[in-house]
């Protein structure tokens, strides 16, 4: 049974989330403080984590939890669920490599739908484990079974969402993928176009950290993005 952890200081709200998620067939664990949550995650990583940003007197305690989780795992699905609606907070959440950023109040059906969608991506990995599949495109290697991406032999630390975006682009080099198509391929139908832009920027930054001349993701204005093997073509 998959374990969903919820880091939320409002006990009644947290229990409500847990009750609904448990009805979907998942086990849950709840935490009110960042330190207790982080210590627990060092012992056992859950399959998905839902985090509020403000935790009691910790105005940004949820960000600390996300940072700690990303040090433990690059692929663990993370959802921010918070009342903080400023662009600064949303951008910070995406920079910290959360897979989703949801705003309170939210219906339980919507929250559960997001949880199920993220976990389906993990299930997609399990479905291919018996048969290792690869994509090789120029200097890129994608291992679908292990959900890893390598560039010139060096593994790029991608989140689950970033992995599926790269996979979507690289499986047909030169083919333009619209933002909606990328959202569909990443099982992210409920997030905005701006999030796709943020995902692409983060992916490029990670590749450029390995290869400053990386330019394989091309912006097609008015169309979307495409993966190209000709590294001499400038990115935008």
Looking across the biggest beta sheet, what order are the strands in? 2-1-3-4-5
Shape summary: elongated
CATH architecture type of the largest domain: 3-Layer(aba) Sandwich
| CATH level 1 class label of the largest domain | Alpha Beta
* First-to-last CA distance: 44 Å
Main sheet summary: 5 strands, parallel
Relative helix content: 40-55%
On the 0 to 100 scale, the average pLDDT is 85
Q: Can you tell me the CATH topology of the largest domain? A: Rossmann fold
Tally the helices: 8
Element layout with pairings:
Layout: E1 3-7, H1 11-23, E2 27-31, H2 34-43, E3 48-51, H3 61-72, E4 78-82, H4 87-95, E5 100-103, H5 108-127, E6 134-137, E7 140-143, E8 148-151, E9 154-156, H6 160-170, H7 179-185, H8 193-210, E10 217-220, E11 224-227
Parallel strand pairs: 1-2, 1-3, 3-4, 4-5
Antiparallel strand pairs: 6-7, 7-8, 8-9, 10-11
Helix pairs in contact: 2-3, 6-7, 6-8
Fold and architecture overview:
- With 236 residues, this protein is α/β, with parallel strands linked by helices.
- The protein has eight helices and eleven strands.
- Helix 2 packs parallel to helix 3, helix 6 crosses helix 7 (179-185) and helix 6 crosses helix 8 (193-210).
- The model is unreliable at 231-236 (pLDDT under 50).
In brief:
This protein is of the alpha/beta class and 236 residues long.
List keywords for this structure.
236 residues; elongated; 8 helices; Arc Repressor Mutant, subunit A; 2 domains; alpha/beta; four-stranded antiparallel beta sheet; Rossmann fold; five-stranded parallel beta sheet; disordered C terminus; 19% strand
